[in-house]
Amino acid sequence: MKSKLVYALALIVLSGSLVFTGCKKRKAFKNEDGQTSADSRTAQGESDGAISDANTIISEQPLLHGRGGSPNAIQGVLGTICGLTTNTVNIANGEITLNYDGTTCNNRTRTGSIRLTILNYAGGVRWKHVGAVLQVDYINYKVTRASDGKSVELNGTQNVTNNSGGTWFDLIFLAQANLSHQVTGTNLNVTFDGSKTAVYNINRKFTYTWASPVVTCVGEGIGSSNSLSNLENYGTTRDGDNFTSQVTTPVVWNTTCGAWAPIQGAVNVKVDDKAFDLKCTFGVDANGNSISVAPNTCAYGMKVEWTYKKKTNKKIFGYQ
User: Fold this and answer.
1) How far apart are CA 132 and CA 10, in angstroms?
2) Count of CB atoms within 10 A of residue 219's CB?
């Protein structure tokens, strides 16, 4: 009799636990807003933009690039970089610092600094060499959208490896077919709107091509964590939850629309303890429809969808 009572009580506890878990999952689905995926894309887009600036500036510095030639050639083609001044006091040691003065351009206000250092510069390494590594140190590098005041601030270090050799100068002026770079960064601190901080581990491969007057970048995920591969990012969200972002379709951006506004691509974002993934599609219009890629065509934003059982919700985030 006693064993039957214990068994019955166990069933009641188990049933209650299942009901509670189911309610918790339904509540998480209902309350989901897709912010984790938007955060990851915002941070990576601004990182991409900063590395784009780095490629432009270093390719125009003969001492760092490893060539002769006139400065400002690339900016003469792509346009000047808004609100940027460079400090070259340590250029003889392979170091240059990008300082942003708070000027607002393209709805974005940038402040802080980015220090660029070519590793083993004293040993003869220049940025055009195959395997050259550029250390990128973000120092209170903050980007604020003028339209709504939302901001993201990066602090930490990334390494960019020149897998193909050559630079943007070779790509634009010397007809090099493409450039291949690898970007890695561990424990990058990313603070949103001046308050909560996420910690990102970014692992990506970039392939740059040139078709006058536009540089196009294709980004792929090369990281791995917890048996998942093709990760562009993983770490903890602004709320402290573990997450992964897996590239399912290469992410494409260009210098016409900006690194923060991809025109193609898709990723799958998984947050621990959630019973659904966030499926992100980049390059959509205001209704969430994928745009047709054409010269000078820019997208409204990105679409995020999540499904639990037979229900699907979505949210569209504008880039601007």
Assistant:
1) 63
2) 23
CA–CA separation, 180 and 233 (whole Å): 19
Closest CA to 127 of 51, 64, 172: 64
Residue (of 246, 146, 145, 166) closest to 208 by Cα position:
166
Environment class of 309 (CB within 10 Å of its CB; exposed 0-12, middle 13-18, buried 19+): exposed
Give CA–CA dist 43/32, Å, rounded.
20
What is the separation of C-alpha 276 from the centre of its chain, rounded to a whole number of angstroms?
22
- What confidence category does residue 72 fall into, taking pLDDT thresholds of 50, 70 and 90? confident
Residue 194 has pLDDT above 60, yes or no: yes
Q: Any residues with CB less than 8 A from the CB of 11 and at least 6 apart, and which? A: none
Torsion, CA 105, CA 214, CA 245, CA 32, rounded to 10: 50
pLDDT top residue among 28 and 236 = 236
Angle, CA of 97, 102 and 105, to the nearest 5°: 105
Is pLDDT at 25 greater than 80 in this prediction? no
Compute the chain's Rg from CA coordinates: 23
Amino acid 210 reads W
CA distance 25 to 31: 10
Find, among 178, 179, 181, the residue nearest to 159 by Cα: 181
Report the distance separating Cα 260 and Cα 302, nearest Å. Answer: 11
**CA distance linking residue 145 with residue 124, whole number of Å:** 40
Instruction: Say how many C-beta atoms besides its own lie within 10 A of residue 26's C-beta.
Output: 14
Q: In what helix (H) or strand (E) does residue 305 lie, and over which residues does it extend?
A: strand 301-308
pLDDT tier, 14 (very low <50, low <70, confident <90, very high otherwise)? very low
- What is the spatial distance between Cα 171 and Cα 234, in angstroms, rounded to a whole number? 31
The model's pTM is 0.90
The residue whose two tokens read 């309350």 is 31
